[in-house]
Amino acid sequence: AQRVTQPEKLLSVFKGAPVELKCNYSYSGSPELFWYVQYSRQRLQLLLRHISRESIKGFTADLNKGETSFHLKKPFAQEEDSAMYYCAPQSGNNRKLIWGLGTSLAVNP
Amino acid sequence: GAVVSQHPSRVICKSGTSVKIECRSLDFQATTMFWYRQFPKKSLMLMATSNEGSKATYEQGVEKDKFLINHASLTLSTLTVTSAHPEDSSFYICSARSHGGYGYTFGSGTRLTVV
After folding, report:
1. For chain B, what is the largest distance between any 2 Cα atoms, rounded to a whole number of angstroms?
2. Which one in A61, B14, B38, B85 has a CA-CA gap of 20 to 30 Å to A48?
3. Do B103 and A102 touch (CB under 8 A)?
């Protein structure tokens, strides 16, 4: 079954520290992977997708097919990065997203 | 950027009544709409996928007669919770994707409380 695992429910770091939010997936074929973010009292929004290989708000994510991982990284966390982060592979003809449980990132001053 | 407007943001209804939730894409054509349900401290649970002009495809375990989805136009999809029960109380979120688009635009969600 297609599944995504975000092992950390809560990740707490200090401002300026590096941060890595882990994501592992099980998926047959070539998945397209996304990271979505939900800031407090705001709706879910796309953070980045692996195909574009871009950096958004300082975040990057590399798809490692060997490890079936798509970890999200940022070298220097900021307080405004505090949010809920979801890793979501895309599946099937309808390209629906498979959702993990999310990781709550808290960046402390 | 693409915006999806979801209404109402909160609704309280009595058991046995029906509630309609609307999602409108404001500046793009939503060829596909996804409806989710989110329980406290849980991930999003996909309820159904609808393509404009077609019947919705429901996920396993979701009652299609209870959760009626209409996607009659490229800018509007509705979810109607029929004969609501307290266990239907939840946070419902819509998400839209345009044809050929890769990203998903989310509504702000609807908090449904059935009393």
Report:
1. 41
2. B38
3. no
Q: Provide, as residue numbers in chain B, all residues whose Cβ is less than 8 Å from the Cβ of A94.
A: 32, 49, 51, 57
Question: What is the rounded CA–CA span in Å between residue B66 and residue A8?
Answer: 35
| Omega cis (within 30) before B8 | yes
Q: What percent of chain B has pLDDT over 90?
A: 68
Task: Determine the Cα–Cα distance for residues A19 and A74; give it in Å rounded to an integer.
Answer: 5
pLDDT, tens digit, 9 for 90 and up, residues B47-90: 999 988 888 999 999 999 999 999 888 899 999 999 999 999 99
Residue A20 tokens, joined: 């890595």
CB contact under 8 A, A44 and B106: yes
d(CA A80, CA A83): 8
Instruction: With CB atoms and an 8 Å threshold, state whether A97 touches B46.
Output: yes
Measured distance CA(A94)–CA(A66) in Å, rounded = 26
Specify whether the CB–CB gap between B76 and B69 falls below 8 A. no
Q: Is the pLDDT of residue A54 over 80?
A: no
Give the pLDDT confidence score for residue A92 in this predicted structure.
67
